[in-house]
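Support request, please re-run this one:
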Amino acid sequence: MIKGSCLCGSVTFKVEGKFDNFFLCHCSYCKKDTGSAHAANLFTKSGSLIWLSGIKYVTTFSLESTRHVKSFCSQCGSAVPTVSPDAGVCVVPAGSLDDELDFMPEAHIFTKSNAKWEEKLSELKRFKELPK
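Re-run finished. Output below.
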């Protein structure tokens, strides 16, 4: 079991069972809906999503004519898990988890959509906090 929540704490959840995949997705849809270079999502077909609080704040957006679906907290905008009935899978944004994962992402997907500025990210300086 692993727990998670949104930024404001209105929505809380747990996932029971195992995750089948952990992907960093660089598709244009994921870049738009995260506002970042990629989405970090866990996928489970056999696991169970259990809302602990705030389900009334969960809003789901489905991008017409695609399989792209995103759920978020209507109070703070944070991404929260989505259950996709069409695909039969629960997608959990890794950043929404409160518990640490003991495994790494297995792959980058849709890398043909990588932003050019991603190419040398490993070479950037690193700061433990906001630099002064």
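The chain has one domain: 2-113. The longest strand covers residues 39-44.
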